[in-house]
Amino acid sequence: MRVIRCQRNQGGFAQRRFSLFQVLTIVALAATCWLVWHRSQPPAGRKTAQTPLTNDPVPKTSIREPGIAMNDQPPPPAKVQEATQEVAVVEILPLPQTNSTSLPSPTEEPTGPAPASNPAPAFVSEPVATVPDFKPHPARTVLDAQVVMARKGISAGPIDGLMGRQTRAAIRAFQQQYGLPVTGELDGYTRNALRVREPPLIGATIQAIDVALLRPVPDSWLGKSQAGRLGYESLLELMAERGRAYQSYIRRLNPGIDWAAASPGTTVQIPNVSPPRFVQRASYVRIFLERRALQAFDQQDRLMTHFPCSIASRVEKRPVGELQVSVIVDEPDYTFDPEIFTESEEGRRLGRRLRIPPGPNNPVGLVWIGLNLPGYGIHGTPEPENVGRTESHGCFRLANWNAQTLRDIAWVGMPVLVEP
Question: Fewer beta carbons below 10 Å: N end or C end of the chain?
Answer without folding.
Answer: N
